[in-house]
Amino acid sequence: MRDVDRMAADVSSSSPDLQERGTIATELRDLFCGRPVLVTGGAGFIGSNLVRRLVCLGARVTVVDSLLPDYGGNLFNLRDVRDQIWLSVTDMRDRNGLAYLVKGQEIIFNLAGQVSHEDSMRDPLTDLDINCRSQASLLETCRQHNPDVRIVYTSTRQIYGRPKYLPVDEDHPLEPVDVNGINKLAGEQYHLLYHQVHGMWTSALRLTNTYGPRQLIRHARQGFIAWFVNRAVRGETIKLYGDGTQRRDLTHVDDVVEALLLASVNDAANGQVFNLGGELISLLDLTAMLSQLCPDVRYETIPFPEERRKIDIGDYVARWDKIRGVLGWTPRVGLCDGLRGTIDYYRRFGDHYL
Amino acid sequence: MRDVDRMAADVSSSSPDLQERGTIATELRDLFCGRPVLVTGGAGFIGSNLVRRLVCLGARVTVVDSLLPDYGGNLFNLRDVRDQIWLSVTDMRDRNGLAYLVKGQEIIFNLAGQVSHEDSMRDPLTDLDINCRSQASLLETCRQHNPDVRIVYTSTRQIYGRPKYLPVDEDHPLEPVDVNGINKLAGEQYHLLYHQVHGMWTSALRLTNTYGPRQLIRHARQGFIAWFVNRAVRGETIKLYGDGTQRRDLTHVDDVVEALLLASVNDAANGQVFNLGGELISLLDLTAMLSQLCPDVRYETIPFPEERRKIDIGDYVARWDKIRGVLGWTPRVGLCDGLRGTIDYYRRFGDHYL
What we know:
CATH topology of the domain at 3-211 and 252-277 and 320-331 in chain A: Rossmann fold
CATH superfamily of the domain at 3-211 and 252-277 and 320-331 in chain A: NAD(P)-binding Rossmann-like Domain
Radius of gyration of chain A: 19 Å
Oligomer: homodimer
Strand order of the largest sheet of chain A: 3-2-1-4-5-6-10
Number of strands of chain A: 12
Strand content of chain A: 15-25%
Helix content of chain A: 40-55%
Distance between the termini of chain A: 48 Å
Largest interface: A-B, 28 and 28 residues
Number of helices of chain A: 13
């Protein structure tokens, strides 16, 4: 039994009550110190926050990122850990490159993706190549060159489509309403299939709206929260579609990183999918919260643009009992604190994001 | 209102009781006579049977087929209608070619696909390119060059995975157990999405096990029924996995063709998915039925090969009330008659298939 497996068994056998944050942090340091770990999309928003945490835990981190314009990869995100990682500018569509990079890794955090719903509708085949074809390609590559690696995949709530009930649990029907959702669903299903059929170690987290430092906020196509932060930092008007009462649950990126780490070291996550969730808020209330942090910011409500209305999913809130029960994860960062930290970050480093 | 639309309205408003076979045949002739129609995969098993029927109905048929080895395309299937169609040897992955071919068509029967589950596991990316990427590509091409075309897509029961209940209706969870199922699901979802978001006319039929003349029966990778027919015609032993009691419902290809035609001309099919079904039988009883037609044939039971067991779905039978209610379709060809005709066909033309 490898160390990482033994330690993982220890973590999974301890009860959630005992898994206080301090204890987990110590255990995680033991688990990751010196471990070879690959992060795809590691220069992006969630990826770079994860990479920085992994570096803190002493992991030997390889970062793969295509640095495609508009996709979120930003070397500034990694500037102060640049000497402690191996950064490879590699596109997930480059299978030869991947074959080399996956060898010898113990864990792959597979975060690379195209996240814009609008872009997926405008250019379905590029979204397909990245979110669907590259995922199958990565799994095949691992099956051939490193079948024992653990793979944690970041899936998305978008695969559920318009909620038929709230909160949405993992058994909710999967009826995506845009190309991005279809391709991400296929990507997730490949991961689970390679577990079921080929016995590989894979797990998937279905993320909801993630916010925090290091997100691409330059344009409005990486989710509404990024754009709201942009407007707030710039002191410009936030435009709310419809009446602004649609509700979303928001997860701070630090909590997402924690979930990724926990999933990667706990055998109970193998072959499983888990919802993440967070604080529920209407877009109107979110705007009010931002205007407390940035007094200049204003909002107005406007009719839904036609192209956006067609793929909007209405209210969404996740049930995340499963990951709490199985992995002991709960979100820790309150929305108000999280937003304050986010705004502070962009006020300080906005030049690199705006 | 185009003629095809007006006639379709007539068909959909008549009650199923009135839609006797003769009446429908006359109506279909009126609907298809002179119509420009494209059949992708038109040299294959179901495609060629459809093409022959369309030619009988007087349609102006364009056939697209890649004629890839092992995929089912066979020019012998079209030998006696060759002068009455336009045949283009075009791969669905060739987007430029498709752009030309879709222009001016009123109906596209989109049947081209990779159907082998085993092949999809051995070569996931080829399956993905054909069953997933090419579908998105075709839809994008139509959206740009012929957004008013009607598209009927052949989906598969494989997207349900292992049935959680029987009979399986269209609301059954979608949890495919092999790469082919994942990619076909994505392909179906693209079709429905292009209806929902772009207002295109699309419909999908979820086929179960189809049998009949003109199927590739040379190897065992196009479904068990093709291989059973091969063994029966050659008088060789049929090997049943497990104890042979697993049950399947079989649809004769003529009934599938009828369903495709009905779906294409009835606006009630727009944006809908429909299960097809047929006669339920255990593999053991099917073998017994074949041995009445081919006295030399024997069977033996053998343990499931490991690779096959992992992606087997167990018993399957479809609920097809929806297509009966909405389109007035019912299967007409009895299994015994259908198998007799199939065996006769291969006895006569086996040289072109064995």
